[in-house]
Every structure is written in structure tokens, then in C-alpha cells.
From TrEMBL, chains A, B:
EC number: 6.1.1.15
GO molecular function: ATP binding; proline-tRNA ligase activity
Catalysis: reaction(s): tRNA(Pro) + L-proline + ATP = L-prolyl-tRNA(Pro) + AMP + diphosphate
Pfam (any one): HGTP_anticodon
Top enzyme class: ligase
Statement: the UniProt record of this protein carries the keyword NADP: no
Gene Ontology annotations for the cellular component aspect, listed alphabetically: cytosol
Gene Ontology process terms (BP): prolyl-tRNA aminoacylation
Protein's name according to its UniProt entry: Proline--tRNA ligase
Species annotation: Candidatus Taylorbacteria bacterium RIFCSPHIGHO2_12_FULL_45_16
Leader peptide range in chain numbering: none
InterPro entries per record: aa-tRNA-synt_IIb (IPR002314), aa-tRNA-synth_II (IPR006195), aa-tRNA-synth_II/BPL/LPL (IPR045864), Anticodon-bd (IPR004154), Anticodon-bd_dom_sf (IPR036621), Pro-tRNA-ligase_IIa (IPR002316), Pro-tRNA_synthetase (IPR050062), ProRS_anticodon_short (IPR044140)
Annotated Aminoacyl-transfer RNA synthetases class-II family profile domain residues: 38-318
Length: 415, 415
């Protein structure tokens, strides 16, 4: 894409009420727009990053047999009454609205109820199980405070997967597969080293649930990290019993602020019982389906990456989620030689399906470089009179700052 | 994908309150689930069709320079008050809700207001124009009645593009490009022959707007079609003046029921003036940006295709939006020969990136064929003892019913 075509502009100012570093950087670089407190729109660069995050998650969910659906946001009150979650005293972050022809409906903050209900049409016998279903859907949560930028929004994209198994054992097997898939997701997203499988409160059906917590000062949670064992304990459940269960000692734990980028949860028969989701076993006996739920917030992940991978000049995207693979910057000369070479290079790279943002604007080198640092594409290529004198282009890695002169397009692509 | 893995089941019954043919077929075939009146979820097959519809529209919007974004659903009351569209007496299908910490917000039924406001950060000078921005976003409309299945839902996906130009002339140029892109979209979606550019009410800034109306008995609109000129007039504007403008005679027009699958609309400076979206012209003078809006509902299109392309056995997808390219059906023999050959064919086709739904279930031929007819994948391949005796497989076109015996996989792929 030519940058002269990209409609967004970088800017110095951010909305006065925006205190989160992730949102400040993303707004300044033109990735997102703040609509209201906790409500953000995604602009072309932001949508590109979001789509890459989503695709990595999708591939890993498919790899464990997940089938993708897209459930509705508008929620039937009756289903939520059946599980006791309609009342505002039970769920304190509902957005509710009214149908014109009568009746209250909710905006989904999660989807256990409608999906459990839907599966009654599709699960009859043990032969139909196991099943894993997931979606990327907008969730609405009426948060009292929303000061963490896109890390805690009132409207946000969520990947939520739900598993359906015949019994606790096969559920546990899938749960472990899902845990491994989550670890792969965060590794691929470039935040694996900072992300810990964290023991958290389990609810009625399992002693613990597992959160995926990424260490960052911008986090709203406190976790205790055991670095050697690559695990952590949420402050809420840190006690002697959990230390004993995990065979760790309090003195080996380090306190950190962290953000919950994912969580996985055993649900037992809670929803199946409430909504009547049963299957016939081999003996023809009706049994409740055993469920689990598995969430990742792609927007929250994107915000976390922005917090972790940025410097005083701007964003520093990992290659896997960089909005473009290459930021191609031309420093034009008066004779048009640089333009000719760069246009040609842009064509060739684009033809090879390399995603290139080509800064073809009539701007100073200073503006181009500072915009490029702010936007934070993982690799920069500069073409200038100076590089042409050496019959080369200059490449620069946004993260390491390493600069190289490269002679041919093949060398560029092979790197 | 192996059909034994697909969690959805075909079924005979549909919800009692579902009267629309499109939704009845799509529910029976396992494409969608009805959550409430006018609210549907998309299951794996339905999401695949939807994604194909979306991708065709996306390609054509990109081809006219559209830049994709994703705006928020939650809407700031202030912006809608500025244009006079907040009040329920002006817009009668708002869904509204309340923030926990005070204040009413709306659920977007369209996005002119937030996008116009957002563009103020990015449009400064005539050099920044033209711009075309689009999104695929869920819209919420509090319809009094919702009896047309996914053709008129209370929550539905919408592609909405907005154009920003320096003046009326450049706006008109883009408007014509968009019109052509729309025609390409409906052609590619397989409903081009039934779809007419239809003159409709224009509003304050242009005499007419243009609707894209597809002729079907399931439609809620009445249009008057001039077949030779490939145009139509909406009943709402049919009068002597429009006949004169279009140089057509009333007697050449044929009355039809139709569904509005798209519309394009000149907005003039209505939103720019109300929200202060201006640019500096070459003389440094501040002028309002001239806008247009361009909508297509992918869900409505999918419903329209289901209405047009179906028979008494089920759905009949056009190839371009068929959930899979091939429905591969194995009629197993007791010795496992058919299974071996079909497994192998499935592997080979999948490796060549052909999208195949492989019916590997232990079901009767009758069940497999009737499910296949109901699901309506454009091409069927049958492997059975009989076809193997001829060292062949049988292909069948779902639309024409044409059957052929094919000897090799290369012949299959070349077709």
C-alpha cells in the first residue's frame, strides 16, 4: 500500500482523558480512534494487526479441532434466567436494551448460555462428542472504569471456544490440549516469554482455572511468578494449599503486575444441567454434557503487545503481527532516480505477495523516519541517493536497530 | 472437512415462528440458528458462505480504492444529537442502552456520524482527498416486525462504505465507479441477472439515490422493471417526472416484488456541515467535504441467494459462495475399498487446496444424498462400488443435475 493513499495521519496529541500507553501510542500512530471511554474503532493499520492476531489464534484453534461459528450479540433474557445470570446483582456489567415490540434483551458479555442452548439441536448421542466450537465475536461489558486503553474496553473482540465432552476425563484431555494451544498462540504473538500459565480460582467444578497472564506494569492483576517452573499464582488464590499443590515455596515467587490475556475454565455440567444439554451414552442413558470455556481477547492482546513492544519513539511490532512486513521509505532526489528505483522495488515486492507500506509521500526524511518509528513496522527499507550510489538499499530492524546494506531483491527476500 | 467432524445436523423441523423460506432452509441444513425473532447465529457452513460473500464484496471495494476499518457499535449520543438523529421520533429503530457510570448510548444502525467525526483528525487539505473508507460491521435495528429470515434481521452484518470528496463532480465520478463495483459484486454472487439498479428517493442532495433490487417473491419492496434498459424504479418514486428523466414509458415497466440488497446515496455536505468536517482548498479556504454512502448487507444477500437458488430438495449455491467447492460422498462397501479410494481422493484434493466436505459418515446412501441436496454444495462427487468398477467417480452439478463419470483427479480439477 502506498502511504500517500493511507488516509490516517500520525499525530502528536491524544485525547486528554486517554491515560493508557497502549491507546496513546496506537492513537498517535493512527491505528485506532477513541469513540468514548472504553470504546475504540480500528483504523486500517489497526485492523491489519488485529486480523493477524485473529488469524494466529484461528489457526491454533483449528489445530485442536475447533469449528468456527458466529453467534449473535443480542441475548434472550430467558436463557440467562435459566442459569441465574440475568440479574444485575449477579452479573454487574450487563448492557441491556429493549425490543420495540416488548421485552428486555441483553448484549452478550459471554456466550455459554446461547451456545449451550443451540447445541441441544446438534448433540444427541455419545457418538456426536467431543465437539469444540469457537468464535470471534464482539463482547459488551458495562465496565465501571475503563482506563487501560484497548486492554479493557467496554466493547471488544473476543475469541471464545467452548468444549463439549462425554465425561470429566475426556474434558481434561482436551483442556490440556487447549492449554498447549494457548502457549503456542502467545509464543507466536511475540509475548510468550512474558506470559505465564497462572493458577486462579476454579469455581464449583474444578479446584483451579488457568489464566494466561503477561507481565507488564500496565496490568491490573497481581500474580506471583515461579520463573524456573514457568508458572504463576494469582494473588486471589495464593495460600498454603496452592503452594502445596504446586510443590513450590513462597520464597521462590516474585510479585508482578500482569494482564490476563487468556483464560481456560472447566464448567462441568453447570450449563448443561441448567439448560438441558444431555446426550445418550452407549447404554442409552441420558447424561449431561461436560463443558469447558476458553477465552482470548485479541484487542487486549494487541494492547499488551503495544505496552511490551514499544519505546520512546513508538511501536515495535513483532514480525508476526506487524501491519506490514516492510516499511519501504524513499528519500526522493530531484531527478526522480530514487522514485524510479523504489517504485520498481515496490512493484516487485508486492508481486511476490510481500506486504509493503511504501512511503511515497513528499515529506522530509525527518518526518518519514519519525512516522516510521512511531508506526513500528518490524522492518524498514530505505532507498536514497546515498544507497543508490552503493547500488544498494538500507535495511533496518525496528527492534534491534541493526542496519545493513543489501544489494539485491533476492537478498531482501531471503533474509 | 470430514462431515463426521462437522457438529451440525440437518433436520426436518424449523422453529414454529419461522415463516421465511431462506431461514427455514438454512436452519434445516444447519447453516444458521434462530436465537430470537430477527436474530440469527451463523454455524460453520453458514459462516463459510458469509465469509465468501464478504470476500467478494471486499475485493470489489478494494478495487475502487476502499480502505477497510472497523468502527465501534456503541455510539456517542452527542454525535447523533448534532445531526438530529438521536431522537426516537426521527429514527424509529434505535436500540439504546445506558452506561453504568451514567448516560445513554446507542447501538449503531449506521455509521455516518462516528466516521464523519473521526475523519476530522485525518482530513485537513484538498491533498488528503479523495478518500473511501469501508467496514463490515454488525448493525442493530429495532425492527417492529422481522419475518423475512436473514433478509431483515434486528442484528446483521453490513458492508458500509463512505466516500469523501472535494466537490460534487469528483463525488459523482466516484459514485459511478461504486455503482459499477456493485454490479460486479452481484454478478459474482450469482444474482446479477435478477438484480436491477433501481431509482429511489434521493433526499436533499440529489434527485435520486440508487438501490440494487433483486427480484424475488420474498421481497418486501415493489419495483417497476425496464428489462431492456436493465433498470428499475422504486414504487415510492414512480411518477411522470422520473419516467421523463429516464426516457422510459410506463407501459414498458413490469411490476415485481424485490429485495433491496444494496444502496448508494449522495449525502452532499449534510454530515460534514453538522459535524464540522472541512478541508482547505488550494486557496486556503475552508470547504465542507462532500460525502456519499454505499451499503450492502452480506446476510441479506445470503438470504436472497437462498430464496433464488433453492428447489424442493434444498439449497443450490452458486459456485462462488458455496460453503465447499465439492461435496465428496462415499458409499462404503463392506471390504473397505471405497473408503480407501475416497480417503485418498480427499487427501489429494485437500492438498491441492480444494475445499472439500467429505461425507465419511456411516449413513445410508439415501440419507447422504438427501443431506447433500439440502446442504446444496455446488458440485457433488460420489465414490461407490459401482463407480470403482468403472475405475471412475461420478460428478453431479447441483444446479443442472448433470451427471458425469470422471476417470482421473486431473479431470476433476480441470473442469
Amino acid at each position: 500500500m502506498k502511504q500517500s493513499h493511507l488516509f490516517t495521519k500520525t499525530r502528536h496529541e491524544v485525547p486528554k482523558d486517554e491515560v493508557a500507553k497502549n491507546a496513546q501510542l496506537l492513537i498517535r500512530a493512527g491505528y485506532i480512534n477513541k469513540e468514548m471511554s472504553g470504546v475504540y474503532s480500528y483504523l486500517p493499520l489497526g485492523l491489519r494487526v488485529m486480523n493477524k492476531v485473529v488469524n494466529i489464534i484461528r489457526e491454533e484453534m483449528n489445530s485442536i479441532g475447533g469449528q468456527e461459528v458466529h453467534l449473535a450479540a443480542l441475548q434472550d433474557r430467558k436463557l440467562w434466567e435459566a442459569t441465574g445470570r440475568w440479574d444485575d446483582s449477579v452479573v454487574d456489567n450487563w448492557f441491556k436494551t429493549k425490543l420495540k415490540n416488548g421485552g428486555d434483551i441483553g448484549l452478550g458479555f459471554t456466550h455459554e448460555e446461547p451456545l449451550t442452548n443451540l447445541m441441544k439441536d446438534h448433540i444427541r448421542s455419545f457418538r456426536d462428542l467431543p465437539i469444540a466450537v469457537y468464535q470471534f465475536q464482539t463482547k459488551f461489558r458495562n465496565e465501571e472504569r475503563a482506563k487501560s486503553g484497548i486492554m479493557r474496553a467496554r466493547e471488544f473482540l473476543m475469541k471464545d471456544l467452548y468444549s463439549f465432552n462425554v465425561d470429566e476425563k475426556s474434558h481434561q484431555d482436551f483442556y490440556e490440549e487447549a492449554k498447549k494451544a494457548y502457549i503456542r498462540v502467545f509464543d507466536r504473538l511475540g509475548i510468550g516469554a512474558q506470559t505465564y500459565v497462572t493458577f486462579a480460582a476454579g469455581g464449583s467444578f474444578s479446584k483451579y482455572s488457568h489464566e494466561f497472564q503477561t507481565i507488564t506494569d500496565a496490568g491490573e492483576d497481581i500474580i506471583y511468578v515461579h520463573k524456573d517452573k514457568r508458572l504463576a499464582v494469582n494473588r486471589d488464590v495464593l495460600n498454603d494449599e496452592v503452594l502445596k499443590d504446586l510443590r513450590i515455596s513462597r520464597s521462590d515467587l516474585e510479585e508482578n503486575k500482569a494482564v490476563e490475556v487468556g483464560n481456560i475454565f472447566s464448567l462441568g455440567a453447570k450449563f448443561s444441567d441448567a439448560l438441558g444439554l444431555n446426550y445418550k451414552d452407549a447404554e442409552g442413558k441420558l447424561r449431561p454434557v461436560i463443558m469447558g470455556s476458553y477465552g482470548i481477547g485479541p484487542g487486549r492482546v494487541m494492547g499488551t503487545i503495544a505496552e511490551l513492544w514499544s519505546d520512546d519513539k513508538g511501536l515495535v511490532w513483532p514480525e508476526s503481527v506487524s501491519p506490514f512486513a516492510i516499511h519501504l521509505i524513499a528519500l526522493f532526489d530531484s531527478e526522480g532516480k530514487v522514485k524510479k528505483v523504489t517504485d520498481d522495488l515496490y512493484e516487485k515486492l508486492t508481486k511476490k505477495s510481500v506486504e509493503v507500506l511504501y512511503d511515497d509521500r513528499e515529506e522530509t526524511a525527518g518526518t518519514k523516519f519519525s512516522d516510521s518509528d512511531l508506526i513500528g513496522i518490524s522492518k524498514r527499507i530505505v532507498v536514497s541517493e546515498k544507497t543508490l550510489r552503493e547500488n544498494s538499499v538500507e535495511t533496518k530492524d525496528r527492534r534491534t536497530g541493526k542496519v545493513e546494506m543489501v544489494k539485491s531483491i533476492n537478498d531482501l527476500l531471503l533474509e
